[in-house]
Design brief:
Elements (H helix, E strand, L loop, with lengths): L6 H20 L21 H12 L6 H8 L6 H9 L6 H7 L4 E3 L7 E4 L6 E3 H14 L4 E3 L5 E6 L4 H10 L16 E2 L14 H12 L13 E4 L13 E8 L4 E2 L2 E2 L3 E8 L10 E7 L4 H15 L10 H8 L1 H12 L4 E2 L18 E4 L5 E6 L5 E2 L1 H14 L3 E4 L5 E7 L3 H10 L8 H4 L1 E3 L13 H12 L11 E4 L13 E9 L6 E9 L11 E8 L3 H15 L7 H6 L3 H12 L3
Parallel strand pairs: 6-7, 7-8, 19-20, 20-21
Antiparallel strand pairs: 1-2, 2-5, 3-17, 4-5, 4-16, 8-11, 9-10, 11-12, 12-13, 14-15, 15-18, 17-18, 21-22, 22-23
Helix pairs in contact: 1-2, 2-9, 3-5, 6-7, 6-12, 9-11, 10-11, 12-13, 15-16, 16-18
């Protein structure tokens, strides 16, 4: 039993474990700790750290949330046979099993849709053309049929019947893909630079590091069942932003110059990762630089230690305060990093920022269109997708293009689109023509290039508005009326979960129920915010106007953009700079005077 427990806490732990064993026995499940179980003894095996954290919470007078009790009663990975029994009878899960099946990547999304949604795991967002084609076949046969590219450079499919759910999961495994751990209290899809290994701007190819972390997670059950979900990203400082600063752990490639040292020892010049922690934009925080640098080969060990400190100390009594940010807020970075070093058994290297060279600046439009690769004569082609949606026929065409004209890789981005890489100069026109033939394009307006939307009320019970449809309505309204000459990101998210990260958009819209009469009737709409950003422009957007009806949002967006174009200090002043140099009241007055009068 851990020496971290006092004698009283050890007695609580024994009682807690006895209660867990009784709960499992009542469900017809075997005892914890292997054949024969451990009775009321301390837990062992891969779930030990989680059981100890739960018991310590109870011993300290805390009350576990339902999700923690469900984990203790039956681990989701022990329940696959029961899941298949449910599916065979066409039965959808009750809340506790809805939570458990998310460990397998399945979300029961009623009442929005009386079906499952499945989210995959695609490390660094890169999969092979034949896998992409295989997902298209599964989607057509077992799902919507359609797929969405997500804001974690991932794929999700929807409208999956109970009977088809196991067929989908097992079909993904046949393709060498998985959905394991893509939902619930687990480490989500591992993101990396979309142009890793092909980008003339990048400092580091993130693919081996994202892949190593992905497989480390998949093969260690103790890394599942965290206090809450957890995001990790690797950014190689390439042309397309990875949004690593929105993650719990952000590894940012940097170059260290000559002369750096730590505790009297020289730090080798060259490419390292800088460690940033605590990003969660839905709770108003971007990841903060820790001052620590990590050798690329050491990222798995460091990330593992961080996660395990979180496992032991994250809040298991309040879902709203259970993310890593809140441990950092309560402890401070110094205490948390000391605990990580204790877990590692060694010091982490710190380097003064004066020895870190400036990072390359990303291109906010590099995810769309034709761009020269690091390899002479080759290009990546960024395909514009209408708020991330693809039909199976379009997926097959993209796969065929990648095989015939590219290197066979499909690269998903956090901007809800994809890249076809390795296209020779002589084949670029063929790629463009074939994309147009299936209703897609490598060209789009500046406005649509930065338009991001979550699933919305069409497929999510939490959403207060139909975000994807409303995003397209904004584009359709604004494009004939205003021409943008600089990138602008417009993020529409349906609820406080902020899947579309509205707080980092130049303009952010979050779904809201808008009252229309004194009887309390409401219609879908949004609260609108301005001036958010990421990376070099990192910061949270500020509230601009509340309770805007969905049908009124396009005209308001147009008015705000027009006001920026008319009143910017110089032709190259970005929207975020314009918005941030005005107090909100002054900006509201300017929009009323200029934009809405147009």
């Amino acid at each position: 039993m851990s020496n971290d427990f006092s004698p009283d806490q050890k007695r609580y732990l024994e009682g807690f474990m006895s209660g867990m064993q009784s709960a499992r026995a009542a469900r017809g499940l075997g005892p914890l700790g292997g054949p024969g179980g451990q009775g009321s003894a301390a837990p062992s095996g891969p779930d030990r750290e989680h059981a100890e954290a739960q018991a310590k919470t109870v011993a300290g007078g805390g009350k576990l949330v339902d999700q923690e009790k469900w984990k203790a009663a039956e681990h989701p990975f022990d329940a696959y046979a029961r899941f298949k029994d449910q599916a065979s009878s066409g039965t959808y899960p009750k809340p506790e099993d809805n939570f458990r099946w998310r460990y397998h990547g399945l979300f029961y999304v009623a009442p929005a849709q009386d079906s499952y949604m499945c989210r995959l795991r695609i490390p660094n967002g890169i999969l092979k053309a034949w896998q992409f084609e295989g997902v298209a076949d599964l989607a057509e046969r077992l799902c919507g049929p359609y797929s969405h590219v997500t804001t974690r450079a991932n794929l999700q499919v929807r409208e999956i019947s109970a009977e088809n759910a196991p067929l989908l999961l097992e079909g993904l495994a046949d393709l060498g893909l998985t959905a394991k751990g893509s939902g619930a209290d687990n480490i989500r899809n591992v993101t990396g630079s979309a142009t890793a290994g092909i980008d003339p701007l990048e400092l580091l190819d993130t693919r081996p590091h994202a892949r190593a972390w992905h497989h480390h997670i998949l093969n260690d059950r103790s890394l599942y069942g965290l206090p809450r979900k957890f995001n990790v990203a690797f950014d190689g400082a390439g042309s397309i932003a990875t949004l690593e600063d929105t993650n719990d752990i952000g590894f940012q490639a940097i170059e260290i110059g000559e002369g750096a040292s730590f505790e009297g020892q020289p730090v080798e010049p060259g490419i390292w990762y800088r460690l940033a922690l605590g990003g969660i934009t839905g709770h108003h925080d971007l990841a903060r630089d820790t001052g620590i640098v990590v050798a690329p080969s050491d990222t798995v060990a460091v990330a593992d230690a961080i996660v395990r400190v979180f496992v032991a100390n994250g809040d298991r009594t309040n879902r709203n305060k259970a993310r890593l940010k809140y441990v950092l807020d309560a402890w401070g970075f110094d205490k948390f990093l000391a605990a990580v070093e204790d877990k590692l058994g060694r010091r982490l290297i710190r380097v003064d920022g004066a020895f870190v060279k400036p990072r390359p600046v990303y291109d906010r439009l590099a995810h769309i269109g034709v761009h020269a690769q690091l390899q002479p004569g080759l290009n990546w082609v960024g395909v514009a997708l209408p708020v991330g949606k693809l039909t199976p026929a379009q997926m097959r065409t993209i796969a065929a293009i990648s095989k015939a004209c590219g290197d066979g890789d499909i690269r998903l981005t956090v901007w809800q689109n994809l890249l076809i890489s390795g296209v020779p100069d002589a084949k670029v026109d063929d790629v463009i023509a074939n994309l147009l033939a299936c209703g897609l394009s490598a060209e789009t307006s500046v406005l649509r290039a930065g338009l991001i939307a979550c699933t919305g009320a069409t497929g999510c019970k939490f959403a207060a508005a139909h975000t994807k449809e409303d995003a397209l309505a904004i584009a359709a309204h604004c494009e004939p009326r205003i021409t943008l000459d600089q990138p602008v990101n417009i993020h529409l998210t349906g609820c406080h979960h902020s899947c579309a990260q509205h707080y980092i958009g130049d303009l952010g819209l979050i779904g809201a129920k808008v009252p229309v009469n004194e009887e309390g009737d409401t219609v879908p709409g949004y609260d609108l915010l301005v001036g958010g950003g990421y990376g070099v422009d990192g910061g949270m957007a500020r509230p601009f106007r509340e309770k805007v009806k969905a049908e009124e949002a396009p005209a308001l967006v147009e008015a705000i953009l027009r006001t920026w174009q008319v009143h910017r200090a110089a032709p190259d002043e970005s929207f975020v700079s314009f918005a941030r140099r005005h107090e909100i009241e002054a900006l509201q007055a300017l929009v009323a005077q200029t934009g809405e009068a147009a």
